[in-house]
Amino acid sequence: MPASLDLLVLGNAIVDVMARTDEAFLVREGVHKGAMQLIDEARAEHLFGVMGPATIVSGGSGANTAVGAALLGARTGFVGKVRDDELGRLFAHDLTATGVRFATAPAGEGPATARCFILVTPDGERTMNTYLGACQGLSADDVDEATAASARFVYLEGYLWDPPAAKEAFRKAARAAHGAGNKVALTLSDAFCVDRYRDEFLGLIRDGSLDILFANIHELKSLYQTANAETALAALREETGLLGIVTRSEDGALVVAGGDTRAVPAAPVREVVDTTGAGDLFAAGFLAGLARGLDHADCARLGAVAAAEIIQHIGARPQADLAGLAAQAGLL
């Protein structure tokens, strides 16, 4: 039976609240530049009050990937939990308007829809403070096994490993995908996320739960507990049966398959405005390329095109025609 989806993404359903700021604000508020920190509702209200003028859009790492892949022509679905509130309805509308299938039932009570406060400094670096809210209610009951089995690729964002019940949701989706002969991918998401769950992530890699791993070079070094990039890459090459995709900002990406490593350059950009979503959109391009049968190097080139678009404006949702850009690059 042909797959009904190319890609099914499991992730935190989050509404992004984005504002420009400076280094002094980060120091004053005690946040770690370039990282994602989990915060409670009181801290969320405080940051919203002091962060200055903000733009509010639907976001979440996995949801950004789902949107990017859909805009590149992939048949895409998303599993994530929102509350039945104003922000939850905004999230659902924004997702489905791009063609992503989103059928997860909203929570009728409990914490509000999740929010991520994204602080963008003049160098384009983003610092994230996330109130998970309703995200933490995602459970295995929200995963439809038939849908997961129908997807050629199931993709999990590492941030989703924070809510305990979501781990079983991912395992359920992964079992269904593998039972149907399909592939499972994980993005490590953040070096601090890796620090929290290193042993569990390595366990997923080594017990056969994963076929594809996305990481930036900092996350990969954290995974293998080394300050040396070459040492981390050598360890990745030793992982049996794993396709590894390692992004390195302006230095492009590496595709690691078995003992082979292929380098793909970054796509050119006029100006880096906001790096929010760069990894998300790279994964979107790569997975959309896999769904179209492109070889790994061209998948990485497609990812680079999508990432280049996203870092040239504020926000993690594309503003230009991704499919058009990919066509111009000879990739669609």
Automatic annotation (TrEMBL):
This is Adenosine kinase. It comes from the Bacteria. Keywords: Kinase, Transferase. Residues 57-318 form the Carbohydrate kinase PfkB domain. CDD domains: adenosine_kinase. GO terms for molecular function: kinase activity. Belongs to the carbohydrate kinase PfkB family. Coiled coil: none annotated.
